[in-house]
């Protein structure tokens, strides 16, 4: 599996960072989690074979995770007509809103190629490349759904936390019990110290912190990086890792 960080910022982009968007490659095909960055523009800029994008998973409907969806859908609808992918959104209201915008632009929107699904807890997607499972988080106080995702491919496991509950840093407890190759975790809704405490029992082989800030909290993460048995990394936009 390969991890491409297209956008690593939290709710506010910076001069160096777009909002959150991470592209995974499994057996040569693309699986995107979140679209807070201008995903379509970035993929075109890097001459990405757009037909390889097979599915998009959104952690929750906040705009720093969804803004890039509109061009990703719209251009796939009317211009890149060989694109075909499944899009998983966490709530029906989100599906209805986005579909309304798409149909405003194109009443004949290609829903057969660009297939909307409502996310549910548990196994949500499985093909020869990858298995994707969703785990609820309390990010919006369970008033509206938010998820983290476990991706499994060719014996490797990566977990992306999504946005978490500010008090509990509530990524799932199995990350303390079973080995995972990579944990990608946010650190914007709680102080770095709270995440560092939570990570003490983590059994991931590598931890990558994105959606983090402000800068002084990032600095605390950098300083603590040597205290763990695993590498604690702070990826930037454009960074790419093999798993
Ligand atoms: Zn966010
Ligand atoms: Zn959020």
Q: Care to describe what's here?
A:
- By secondary structure, the chain is of the alpha/beta class.
- The chain has one domain: Ribonuclease Z/Hydroxyacylglutathione hydrolase-like (Metallo-beta-lactamase, Chain A), CATH 3.60.15.10.
- Helices cover 21% and strands 32% of the residues.
- The chain contains 6 helices and 14 strands.
- It has helices at 39-45, 69-78, 92-105, 174-177, 192-198, 215-224; strands at 2-7, 21-26, 29-33, 53-57, 85-89, 114-118, 122-126, 131-136, 147-153, 156-160, 180-187, 204-212, 232-233, 240-242.
- Strands 6-5-4-3-2-1-14 form a 7-stranded mixed β-sheet. A 7-stranded mixed β-sheet has the order 7-8-9-10-11-12-13.
- The chain binds zinc ion (ZN) (2 copies).
- One zinc ion (ZN) is lined by residues 60, 62, 139, 163.
């Amino acid at each position: 599996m390969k991890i491409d960080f297209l956008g690593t910022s939290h709710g506010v982009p910076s001069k160096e960072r777009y909002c959150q968007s991470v592209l995974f490659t499994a057996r040569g095909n693309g699986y995107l989690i979140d679209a807070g960055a201008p995903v379509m523009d970035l993929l075109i800029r890097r001459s990405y074979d757009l037909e390889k994008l097979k599915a998009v998973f959104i952690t929750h409907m906040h705009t720093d995770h969804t803004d890039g969806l509109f061009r990703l859908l719209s251009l796939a609808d009317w211009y890149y007509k060989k694109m075909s992918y499944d899009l998983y959104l966490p709530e029906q209201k989100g599906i209805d809103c986005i579909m309304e915008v798409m149909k405003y632009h194109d009443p004949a929107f290609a829903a057969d190629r660009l297939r909307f699904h409502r996310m549910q807890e548990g196994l949500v997607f499985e093909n020869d490349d990858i298995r994707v499972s969703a785990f609820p988080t309390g990010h919006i106080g369970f008033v509206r759904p938010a998820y983290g995702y476990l991706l499994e491919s060719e014996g490797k496991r990566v977990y992306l936390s999504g946005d978490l509950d500010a008090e509990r840093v509530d990524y799932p407890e199995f990350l303390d019990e079973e080995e995972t190759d990579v944990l990608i975790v946010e650190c914007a809704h709680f102080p770095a110290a709270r995440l560092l405490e939570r990570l003490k029992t983590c059994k991931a082989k590598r931890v990558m912190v994105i959606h983090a800030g402000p800068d002084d909290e990032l600095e605390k993460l950098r300083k603590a990086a040597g205290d763990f048995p695993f590498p604690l990394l702070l990826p930037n936009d454009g960074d790419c890792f093999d798993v």
